[in-house]
Amino acid sequence: MKRLLAGIDNVSRVVGKGISFIMFPIVAIVCYEVVMRYVFHRPTIWASECMVYGCAFLYVWGAAWTMLDNRHVKIDMVYEKLSPRGQRILDIITFSFFALYMGMMLWVGMKYALDSIKLLETSGTPWDPPVYPVKSAFVIGVAMLILQGSAKFIRDIYFIIKGTEL
Question: What is the pTM of this model?
């Protein structure tokens, strides 16, 4: 079990760190677009979509790494006041909401991604890049987040039962 959880953690970490480097070209594209638009008064067609697509990959593939490092936004007013055991109990209780929400996102995301792949869907703008890679990436990112959330859930249960980290 420990090896399986470590494997999930490693995938989340490697993919998250790897995709984080996409931020550099995204920032460069945004800077380029700002200069072209406001200095030369010649906005581009492709820059906005390129930035949106890049950020989409960054967000969905970085979410599992964010969960692994416990960096997701949460309401700390209550959570911080709980003992480590109380925090784990709260995490176990809220996992059912997480699982339901993410399961629905995976199901609907797969439907939209498959439809998009069948149609070879594009954005419909003058640049007209394909949309199906982003929709497919969303499904992969949601699956990775479900796996990382499940690994956390298993660790939380283990902590409640054994009183130590897994």
Answer: 0.91
